[in-house]
Amino acid sequence: MADRAAFIVGVARSGTSLFVSLLDDHPELSVLPYESKVLDWCGAADPVSELLGNSRYGTLFPEGTSERDLLESEMRAHIRGPTDMRTALLGLVAGVRRARPPRPTESMWVEKTPKHLRSVPLIARAFGADTRFVCMLRDPRAVLSSQHKRWGRAGTVSVRAFCRRWATADALTRQFEQELPHFRVFRYEDLVAAPEQTMRAAAEHLGIAWNDSLLAPSRRGEDWAANSSFGRTVKGLTTDAVERWREELEPREVRVLERLLGARMERRGYAPDGPGGLYWRRAYMEGASLWSLWRERRRWRKAESASQEG
């Protein structure tokens, strides 16, 4: 199990929850029930208490239950004080598998934390060259609409900030597609429009056999309703959310986004409704994403140097 891992990453609200729900009931996979956000707690003085006290794992495994005792004791057997990402995640996987006995056919574990996109090189070094990555991609207009609904909006200033983040994520994704043979991008729109075709490609990428469970969203083996920002309960796969941004975004928000991201959108197969932005606007966005990419590379180098010194 330690040698076979898959990570689901991407910009938040891009369909990572839906994708991992389709993997949940596959007999070969052990899917962590919630985002680990491992880099937020692995370096704490007491990583196990930090995880259980400040994440949904503490709710899923409440104090006073046998499951909580099994999870915590197994994690503490692996994690003693501040530790590295690999040790912390393997401890979490072992704890979850002890608290809720796994299927005997499981041979790969799966973790989903969208923001781990920024740490893909660190994860690949920690878990080996055979580690699989799935990056979910979605129309930035739909992502912005979903984020606004979930977290609020603040006019076009927040739209510009969102565009910088999305452009940086796209630049990172393109770099990983070129450099990492086991990094694969799947579009949300393709997943909901042609689920079997998309999930068969995903199964091949992950190195698992086809199973009809890959078309049935679930969580911990139970039917899963979509993680919708709009409060809608949807079972199964549907294309209803693909064009919902047209109802939710203001026209000026769409104009700003398309003028800044139009070129990147077209390269990803998302056609802007309006004309492209002025050259200086496109250049500004490209420069901002390249600057962010340089900072990420610097962070990776520092982390690698610290790991080698340790």
Overall description:
The chain is an alpha/beta fold and 310 residues long. It has one domain (5-28, 105-309): P-loop containing nucleotide triphosphate hydrolases (Rossmann fold, 3-Layer(aba) Sandwich). The chain is built from 13 helices and seven strands. It has helices at residues 16-23, 47-53, 57-60, 66-78, 85-99, 120-127, 140-151, 156-179, 188-193, 195-206, 245-248, 251-267, 279-309, and strands spanning 5-10, 29-31, 108-112, 132-137, 183-187, 218-219, 222-223. Strands 2-3-1-4-5 form a five-stranded parallel β-sheet, with helices on both faces. Strand 6 (218-219) and strand 7 form a beta hairpin. Helix 12 (251-267) crosses helix 13. The chain is globular and about 60 Å long.
Number of helices: 13
CATH-defined architecture: 3-Layer(aba) Sandwich
**Average pLDDT:** 88
H/E element order? EHEHHHHEHEHHEHHEEHHH
- Gyration radius, to the nearest Å? 20 Å
- What percentage of amino acids are in beta strands? 5-15%
Order of adjacent strands in the largest pleated sheet = 2-3-1-4-5
What shape does the CA trace take?
globular
Sketch the major β-sheet.
Answer: 5 strands, parallel
Topology:
Elements: E1 5-10, H1 16-23, E2 29-31, H2 47-53, H3 57-60, H4 66-78, H5 85-99, E3 108-112, H6 120-127, E4 132-137, H7 140-151, H8 156-179, E5 183-187, H9 188-193, H10 195-206, E6 218-219, E7 222-223, H11 245-248, H12 251-267, H13 279-309
Parallel strand pairs: 1-3, 1-4, 2-3, 4-5
Antiparallel strand pairs: 6-7
